[in-house]
Design a protein that fits this description.
The protein has about 140 residues and is mainly alpha-helical. The protein contains 5 helices and 2 strands. Helix 3 packs antiparallel against helix 4.
Amino acid sequence: MSNPKPSPFKKLFETKDEPQLEPEQPPETTTESNVIQTPTPQKTAPIQEEPRKRGRPATGKRSDDAWIGRTYYVKRSTDLDVEEELLKLKRRGVEIDKSELVDFLMAVWVKWQQGENIDLLIGEFTPRRNSKLDD
């Protein structure tokens, strides 16, 4: 009966607890001259102060303490109408997302409850031209 092949991983498990020492390399000699060269010491890698974070930088509303996440229900038809109107605004160069719109409308409502004139506030926000309102 033949002996089974020794496992290539056997040495890994046997020397696992032993400290790993790098073997000392003998000085190299050159054949052209009788000068003995000693190996140069290895340079250590520069120490990084902070490791880079993975992923995109946190710059949105989710990472801004001024904003808080909430969930509200709206009718599907209302949501589709809002999407359509926001798309029209975007084509005219006005960038606004739903959360900014909802935030503005809620802030105006609070001011209206407190007795302020909301017509002035809504007039500042809407990108509609006043001439269209007069027609």
